[in-house]
Fold this sequence. Notes:
homodimer; alpha/beta; Metallo-beta-lactamase, Chain A; Ubiquitin-like (UB roll); 7-stranded mixed beta sheet; 26 strands
Amino acid sequence: MQTKKLKIIPxxxxxxxxxxxxxxxxxxxxIVIDAGLMFPESELLGVDIVVPDITYxxxxxxxxxxxxxxxxxxxxxxxxxxILSEIKVPVYATEFTLAYVEGKLEEHHLLDDTELVEITxxxxxxxxxxxxxxxxxxxxxxxxxxxxxxxxxxxxxxxxDFKIDLSPLDxxxxxxHTFAEYGKRGVLALLQDSTNxxxxxxxxxxxxxxxxxxxxxxxxxxxxxxxxxxSSIYRIRIALELARxxxxxxxxxxxxxxxxxxxxxxxxxxxxxxGLIINPGHMRDFTxxxxxxxxxxxxxxxxxxxSRAAVDNHRHAHIDAGDTVVLSSRVIPGNExxxxxxxxxxxxxxxxxxxxxxxxxxxHVSGHGSQDEMRxxxxxxRPKFFVPVHGDYRYLRKHAQIATDTGAIGEAIVIExxxxxxxxxxxxxxxxxxxxxxxxxxSGSSIDVVEDLVIRDRRILSEDGIVLAVLAINKRxxxxxxxxxxxxxxxxGADITDEARELVLKTLDGLNGxxxxxxxxxxxxxxxxxxxxxxxxxxxxxxxxxxxxEI
Amino acid sequence: MQTKKLKIIPxxxxxxxxxxxxxxxxxxxxIVIDAGLMFPESELLGVDIVVPDITYxxxxxxxxxxxxxxxxxxxxxxxxxxILSEIKVPVYATEFTLAYVEGKLEEHHLLDDTELVEITxxxxxxxxxxxxxxxxxxxxxxxxxxxxxxxxxxxxxxxxDFKIDLSPLDxxxxxxHTFAEYGKRGVLALLQDSTNxxxxxxxxxxxxxxxxxxxxxxxxxxxxxxxxxxSSIYRIRIALELARxxxxxxxxxxxxxxxxxxxxxxxxxxxxxxGLIINPGHMRDFTxxxxxxxxxxxxxxxxxxxSRAAVDNHRHAHIDAGDTVVLSSRVIPGNExxxxxxxxxxxxxxxxxxxxxxxxxxxHVSGHGSQDEMRxxxxxxRPKFFVPVHGDYRYLRKHAQIATDTGAIGEAIVIExxxxxxxxxxxxxxxxxxxxxxxxxxSGSSIDVVEDLVIRDRRILSEDGIVLAVLAINKRxxxxxxxxxxxxxxxxGADITDEARELVLKTLDGLNGxxxxxxxxxxxxxxxxxxxxxxxxxxxxxxxxxxxxEI
Lengths: 551, 551
């Protein structure tokens, strides 16, 4: 007779960074931990986001009981609309995470149909055969939890994203005691974040950037632009405190930054004195040294507020000679070209640019624990089986090695998306694989994401046809050299092709000189305009891929 | 009356990394320093290399007297065939640099028509009104020089690429004395390499990687694969010495690695004991612990030997469980995806992979001086005017600031490609700009670069038409989901489109499972095959752009 097994089934995030999603199954009950997205590789033209293939969940629809979220970052919640449009299940998350989720579901008209359940650290709850205890962890975002899941064969702990911040800004400490308690009682499996496995030592506290940022505020003599990830609530809090201390009013520019600040303020994570925040339109009432602009766009996203300000194309944010621009963030690999393009534009405006180039002091810290934090948590939990999660294959392998070297675990097991790890009380082995993979989604455009993010499979989309707009741009003059080629497949006709060609020309004429040299922005503008035209005239939503030839 | 001016006219490398090229003009005499290429941004699909726009040189053809090369890296010599096909002038360089240049010109059938002049450190020579003294500098490549150019208004020193290696492996020291001598006599302008301006301190010696590499050799129990840039002659020398010391025979795999090693051996830069190097086909005669494979492909280039070996698709280089693979190189920004794809494949083969991830000790050092070396050279030379060269705009600005802070210069001036800096004995100002920019070149394919690198302007090329091959690949099965779309513009017909479509399918069928997941390789293969077909059947050489849709 075959004994019953607990199945751990990663569907995303094991073998790549992002789109974290993992199923836990006992007999006929499945719970899903996280539902993230990732951003596509440059090879995948015309694709906006990538989400996990959830064929396995769809095929087992009637057994899926819940989605549990560890925290509110896009790589953990961004795939929710996609999954919820296929499977109707309740979503469990902490208060702050739910606030992000609500906004996201509202955009996709899924909010009314979704049951949201608030969870709280140390308050256990049950779903089918699972009893779950959220454990508070620290990270770059607030209100993050690990999940301890008591199953019929033992406890499984999933860390979510974490660092062990021993002096957190919100005085909500990493709950070492509960991890220790589980470790004493015995843990079957620990699933731990591998993100920073290549970093030795210990990640500094979120608090540790304050002294250097304070110095930068002290030295700024004109306007100060402060940019960070909009979800970096701690960083925003520090920026607002420093603005107040240095007598600067704060204008918030960029939709994501405004939303994030509002949520954090509503839930008491940042405390804004009355009168500190001003309407961006009122900046002209103050002298430059009385202003801080909190602005989104650290990764050089073509349509972000900072990218537009850098080429002097933002209604409110004007960067003048002598202004200081702080990018309190890291350069995410793959984004170098876009980021440095923005920074070069800032230098050309004679701004003082402070970014994380290794010579500017500590202006950014990672939200993920380094090797010593990984070792510490392993030593506290002492699991029978250790399963690295979150990362490229080589990261999982390295993490497994680090765990083995601690001597505090039974066995480290490296699994990838689609593997099924079957466990009983004392053994673990890989079973037959399930479907896993990536699904590419084209939102049409990132700027009208609110009204327009229609999630659909690339398969469906490619049946709607494909539009290639090939632009030959003269590098010297910035002018389009010849009538742009617009190639349509799957639909179209001479009329619409001509109209599309003219529209592309008109769009390019509407750009200023600096914008024209920013190909990311050129492509985005062309894409948005073509999309509108084609949808209006044909009702179709083809894949639109602008291609630039520089001549 | 207008007095005569010396003109410094950067045509490439000031405002970007790569394609270094700078003209120096006195009245009717022009000399050109370096003639480099750069590799294109990912937005520029279908483009293989980028070279400077030399319209200015072509328009002043009769005044161009010579091209002087500081050293043999591609970003300093790679544009030579392009320039020499437009302007016939002698090329001046040191012995080793000339060896690289000869190979390159031979490939392009330009060798017979080009006058090559060997120069030697400390041996002055004159070209028109200029008297030039090459000064030995150290770098990651051998036989590199700076150029001190005596002009009617004073001495201009161009550093070329340099680090100040105080314990060089070839006992050919950085010539501090000559720089000091010029500094004492007075220098009008110093043009200095900005590459590492974001690094504090001092770059370690080329020698400093030896101890850690020695350790790695000591611990390797099976085959050892050693990869570095093929031009890193010092690194190759160290690898060969360690192989000898640890009783391993050396098989060299990869064309560039073989050529480079041959040149270095011929010119006495590496000393290979008889019997050390074996034919790759003879590896089977030795046990794994008796073998080192010197292999090219540190940047994950899709068709490189290492990339192919990583997916078990190389005739001679087979990577087995327990083998050690050392990547003694840096991860060039923009190449992360390709490099880490290769590394993940290596891990899946259960190889021990050692790369520069910050935790593996010193296995690679930069060839460019850090801030303290920049400061040291500025202090020795004490120029009236300081002009940063080589780098993005923000690098030039930072370098100017560092130079100013030394207090050892008169004035730092930031100029970009196309600017004209006019100098007399005591003043410098920017004159009217000249044409500058980038020219994109499609070599058709990187694997048949030898017989096939036809350099041509993108303008001409786009008149030859454009071919888009859109492949929809099922991520799960690795199979092409639907008949690939082949879109041709500017030529073609139903026949050839069908044939092209079938060829693409056939090409994809010929790939193994791991290759199919490597989109860089898939695209390259498809590109090469389509190119052959179209050239054979139509005699045209259109721009071919494979586009992958993952579904």
